[in-house]
Design a protein that fits this description.
2 copies of one chain form a homodimer. By secondary structure, chain A is α/β, with parallel strands linked by helices. Chain A folds into 2 domains: 111 residues, Lyase, Ornithine Decarboxylase, Chain A, domain 1; 205 residues, Alanine racemase (TIM Barrel), CATH 3.20.20. Helix content of chain A is 31%, strand content 24%. Chain A is globular.
Chain lengths: 373, 373
């Protein structure tokens, strides 16, 4: 783990760059906004730690009413439980004895659940839970349209739920129903339609479970792009959004209710860079590239500088093009970039530098960075 | 830093996934091949540590004849010098008192050089070197076609070299002349032409320095895609390739001398994944996505499995499509992926798992992972 790139109390200009910066006012606004939304909608909020990878943030979300955290990896669950988080759902299938044992060990200290989409995975996990003398929560992942993991809705989901219900060491908790592919559909109408399709699949499955006397306590899923539709469906009772805390250009690009810009949440996440070279009047090079932000969604956006655009990204450099109306940039100037995709960007850094009123107010370790197993 | 994903001596099947795996035979072949090439061509080899970020690899390259290492960041230079590397070139401009002081401190233990493309940067760096009582090597970065950093060839380069030569604390070493944009041009003819253009710019500058009685000890640059042209030019006397140790799909795609595939070096770098779900006969999901390999160059290639293709990448998942001639995949099967871009992929991991003859032979910490400042 690298050293923190700033000291508490320092002005922004003294932050060593590139650095991952969080505008704390915007960040807290985002946390409150989704927390208030969930409370009013009468659904539980279980924010996704795969995005933030940081217990300091998990604890803030829980203090605002979240029921716990979800995550994708056993290594993330380990970081969360060691930090005192008492309710963790691994919203993913877990394969292999080693990983299952690590997860079972965590169930000694916290309520732990995971997802299933194969019968043999149920049998293996039940055996490990019994071996460790713990009970693991078990959700059936239903493919509600993303065509990634998950069983098909209806009979296949019922069969797996029945197998879980009859497996000592496992407790059937409900359905994992996340439509990942719907999150970034370009218009609100397309996202609404996709979740309507997912809802039909969920309804069919919940009804079938009910007819077969299997209690379905949880239907959990949803993301930053669609949470309002799952909440309004009357089916989902738990939301798993993660990016809402930060936003990114990939979310900002999708259309909102009243505009072409998705503005449910504010941009709170930035990569702070420094201009390291100004080789021409219309070109400035900043000291952050692919190792400071992910770019599979394209170059980052330049924040707060008129007529300046990021036009090229290499491993350690960002190339800015200054248009005719741009204020000249000089060596040493700071430039805030909005990353294309928050999750993999955060996973590049060891520290969040929280800023407010022009100075560093918080340094939060990204303790689950690199926790890929 | 996460724990190593394997134990020395374990079979490949026991490596916790996703993991960054190095085929040691292929890796050693690549190191020897470029080392032998440089020796025969009569040029120095200074491999780029921005790619590998690992002192264990740097020491192997030096044992095979490399004169030292180059890197892009002060943080990388710190890791190298602390591990005993005695000659480090930061092939990049460094801005800011804090970073310059860190670099000057390293010059107490090693020969350290950096690049310049602005007069005020020369003045600032000279002052820091004198303050620390050290001498820093100084290269003028010339823009030879990449249009990123660097001064223009000819008079601007001469003026900066003269300023360096008259600045106590700095020692003018020569020219940094790297054509990054040429590395991935799709045909060998285009790459040859680009380096011919770069060579004209270098020649003009070297001649001008000579006429002004400024000794130009080094002309350094080149990468995995073009090294043969710089070596043959009679101008460059030092090569800075990095990716050659590993390769990736982005390099493999460019045309070679006798084929459409660039095959100067073998693929030695893989992300080992496990099949975590097989939801349909033509679809398998592996447990590695954007946090295990970078995908700004597209999805990874599937290694060694006929008619299986990676068609989707999300944060923690890779989606494989099995064609009609594919052998069925089962939960728990291991799949080796060839990353699109080696540098940012390596920067996601804490460990190289070196394999040979089917088992784990080496665990090398990626000590400069995340060293972005």
């Amino acid at each position: 783990m690298t050293s923190p790139p700033a000291r508490i109390g320092a002005p922004i200009e003294e932050i060593d760059t590139p650095a991952l910066v969080v505008d704390l006012d915007a960040f807290e606004h985002n946390l409150r906004k989704l927390s208030d939304f969930a409370r009013k909608a009468g659904v539980r909020l279980r924010p996704h730690a795969k995005t933030h990878k940081c217990p300091a943030i998990a604890l803030r979300q829980i203090a605002l009413g979240a029921v716990g955290q979800c995550c994708q990896k056993v290594g993330e669950a380990e970081v969360l439980v060691r930090s005192g988080i008492k309710d963790v759902l691994v919203s993913n299938e877990i394969v292999g004895l080693n990983k299952l044992r690590r997860l079972a060990a965590l169930a000694k200290d916290a309520t732990v659940a995971l997802c299933f989409d194969a019968a043999e995975q149920v049998d293996e996990t039940g055996a490990v839970a019994r071996d460790f003398g713990v009970e693991l929560g078990a959700l059936v992942e239903v493919d509600v349209g993303a065509q990634r993991c998950g069983v098909l809705p209806g009979e296949p989901a019922l069969a797996l739920a029945q197998r879980i219900a009859s497996t000592p060491g496992l407790k059937f908790r409900g359905l994992q129903a996340y439509h990942g592919a719907a999150q970034h559909l370009p218009s609100i109408a397309e996202r609404e339609k996709a979740i309507a399709g997912a809802a039909a699949a969920v309804r069919q499955t919940v009804d079938l479970l009910k007819r077969n006397a299997i209690a379905c306590e949880l239907v959990t899923g949803a993301g930053t792009g669609t949470y309002q539709f799952e909440a309004a469906s009357g089916l989902w009772n738990e939301l798993q959004a993660g990016s809402y805390a930060f936003m990114d250009t990939d979310y900002a690009r999708i259309g909102g209710r009243d505009s072409n810009r998705f503005a449910d949440f504010e941009h709170s996440l930035f990569v702070l860079t420094t201009v390291m070279s100004v080789p021409a009047a219309d070109r400035a090079i900043v000291d952050g590239g692919l190792k400071a932000y992910s770019a599979e969604k394209g170059p980052p956006w330049v924040h707060g500088l008129a007529d300046v655009e990021a036009v090229g990204v290499s491993d350690e450099h960002g190339k800015l093009k200054l248009g005719p109306n741009a204020r000249p940039l000089r060596r040493g100037d700071k430039v805030m970039l909005i990353p294309g995709h928050c999750d993999p960007t955060i996973n590049l850094h060891d520290w969040y530098v929280g800023i407010r009123n022009g100075r560093v107010e918080a340094l939060w370790p990204i303790s689950a960075r690199g926790a890929v197993t």
